[in-house]
Amino acid sequence: MSCKRKHIAIIGAGASGLFLAKKLSESPDMDVTVFEKNRQVGAKLRASGGGKANIFNRDIRPDHYNKPEFVAELLQHYSPEQLENQFSEWGLVTITDEEGRVYPASQFSQTVVDVLTHYLNENVQLVTNYDVQHLDYKNRKWKINDSPTLFDVLVLASGSPAGMIPKNQRGYNHYLQDLALKINHLESSLSGFILKDYPKSLSGCRTKAVVSLYQNKKLIHKESGEITFKDDGISGIVIMNLSAYYRRLLSTKNCRLEINLTYWDENFDTDTYLRDNHNTTGLLHPKLAALYQQKPFDIHRLTFQIEDTYPLEGAQVCHGGIDLPEIEGNFAAKRFKNLYILGEMLDVDGVCGGYNLFFAFASAAITATSITK
After folding, report:
1. Alpha helices in 214-349 (DSSP H)
2. Of these four, 34, 95, 266, 297, which has the most CB atoms within 10 Å of its CB?
3. Residue 165: burial class (beta carbons within 10 Å; 0-12, 13-18, 19+)
4. What span, in angstroms and rounded, lies between the C-alpha atoms of 148 and 87?
């Protein structure tokens, strides 16, 4: 007796879409079609980790995300160890740096894309240059655009407009209008800050520092690492992480950055140093030393008021997205029993270091288990 084949459509060939297709390709009774708007698959995945693909972090904790309760539940079902084992089964060799960030041993993100796309079973079809504009749901079947093919299961994995130029942002994920899902406002996260009254003379300065995000008198978050001053603001991994915490505030009014430039010793005695040396030439980056010479500032607390984050085209991920009450814990939509929503499409975002890619892969793995059951 032959088993009835199940037809699966995946919109988006990014991290979660490709991972899910790879998992489902292991089931012989599944026919999978992946629709990708771009000419190539895995565009953001190839760009992640500075082109090295920081695929996850060994220290995945719920408080690294804006929705810790949801992630805590996810970690009960899928762990970083399970993800590592899965990639190992597929032949990907990984390495871990001192911060717990996990990369392909090749140090090349294309390796991850190749592992997810090479040697797919013939039951998986990748369709590129295909823009999904409309969805139709009738008699528990999904129709995409005007295609005659009907699908038993539809998976949304087309990500967000983070990192896109404004022209490409317009109309992105337009098809969601057909589903009437609640979508929380999309804002840039893991982004630099635009600062008020910013001295443009610092542009191009790169230094290490301890940076604290304050709202009024309350410390929101504090991190140490390298920062980069740009034409109109500040960036770097530390700053991008602070932007994630900034976006989690109910209101972003009255926020500021306090930068301690003596990162090696937060209590370094600058008074004695200045009394003995009369300037900051041997202490600070030349551009910071020149600024101090022009207008002295507190070296332990160089303060800037925040105007905003950089816009979406300068962000790594979006804060906002499809509201979590729209889905079950297995990423199935509550109002459509054969619809799943994955990864960055959801209102879940984490800090830098492999947390967002882990969520993308984990959501795909859990969804694969649900579909194959």
Report:
1. 237-247, 270-277, 286-294
2. 34
3. exposed
4. 35
Pairing mode of beta strands 30-35, 124-127? parallel
The domain covering 6-187+315-372 belongs, at the CATH homologous superfamily level, to FAD/NAD(P)-binding domain (3.50.50.60)
Domain with CATH 3.50.50.60 in the chain: 6-187+315-372
Contact between 162 and 315 under an 8 Å Cβ cutoff? The reply is: yes
Contact predicate 66/247, CB 8 Å:
yes
pLDDT in tens, the chain (373 residues): 445 789 999 999 999 999 999 999 999 899 999 999 999 999 999 988 889 999 999 999 999 999 999 999 999 999 999 999 999 999 999 999 999 999 999 999 999 999 999 988 889 999 999 999 999 999 999 999 998 899 999 999 999 999 888 888 887 889 999 999 999 999 999 999 999 999 999 999 999 999 999 999 999 999 999 999 999 899 999 999 999 999 999 999 999 999 999 999 999 999 999 999 999 999 999 999 999 999 999 999 999 999 999 999 999 999 999 999 999 999 999 999 899 999 999 999 999 999 999 999 999 999 999 999 8
What's the pTM value of the predicted model, to 2 decimals? 0.94
278: its two tokens: 């009369």
Interior/surface letters 227-247, b for 16+ CB within 10 angstroms, e for the rest: bbbbeebbbbbbbbbbbbbbb
